[in-house]
C-alpha cells in the first residue's frame, strides 16, 4: 500500500482542476499545467480535495499510485506558489547574464554559451549574491531539467571546485599532485 498515494491533495482557492479523458489540467494564478495520467490511475475531486485511486491491484502498478499523486500535488503547488532552483557559478572570469527566458554564460570556453529555456521558465540574478542564477517557473520537472542542463555545460571540477553547481552542493575535493608525492 502506498502511504503517499492515500493522502488527499488540498486544492486551494483560485485553483481550477479539470480531469477528463486521462488528462489533468490545473489552472491557477501563476499559469496552467497539463499532464497525461496513466489509465491505471484515476483522479476523483470532492470537497476541494483531489484523491488518487489505483484501478489495478497488481504489485507492478502500485508504484504509479504514489507517483501520480506526487506529480499532481507538484502541479497544484506550481500554479499557486511556483518553484525556483539556484545555481552558483564559481571560477575566475565565469559569469552569466540573464534576460527573461535566455541566459548568456561565460564559462572559460573560447565562446559564450547562449541558452534559451523552454516556455514558462525565467532566469534572474540573486540580489544577495551576484554569482547565483535563480531559475523560476511553475513546472518542477522542467526547472530541474534546465538546471541540470546548465550545470552540464561546466560541472564543478574536483581540484578547485570551479564550474556551475547547485547552491549549497558539497564538492568533494581531491588532493593535487604535490600532496600525492610528498610522503
Share of residues in strands: 35-45%
Strand order of the largest sheet: 11-12-7-13
Order of helices and strands: HEEEEEEHEEEEEEHEH
Query: What CATH architecture label of the largest domain applies?
Result: Alpha-Beta Complex
Tell me the domain tally.
2
Unreliable stretches:
none
Query: How many β strands by DSSP?
Result: 13
Radius of gyration (CA) equals 21 Å
**Overall geometric form:** elongated
CATH topology of the largest domain: Outer Surface Protein A, domain 3
CATH class of the largest domain: Alpha Beta
Largest sheet: 4 strands, antiparallel
Structure write-up:
- The protein has helices at 3-6, 62-80, 140-153, 177-181; strands at residues 9-10, 16-20, 23-28, 31-36, 41-46, 49-54, 83-90, 95-99, 102-106, 113-116, 122-125, 132-137, 163-166.
- It is of the alpha+beta class and 183 residues long.
- The chain has two domains: 3-80, Ribosomal protein L6 (Outer Surface Protein A, domain 3), CATH 3.90.930.12; 83-166, Outer Surface Protein A, domain 3 (Alpha-Beta Complex).
- The strands form four sheets. It has a four-stranded antiparallel sheet with strand order 11-12-7-13, covered by helices on one side.
- A hairpin with a 6-residue loop joins strand 9 (102-106) and strand 10.
- The radius of gyration is 21 Å and the shape is elongated.
- The N and C termini lie far apart (57 Å).
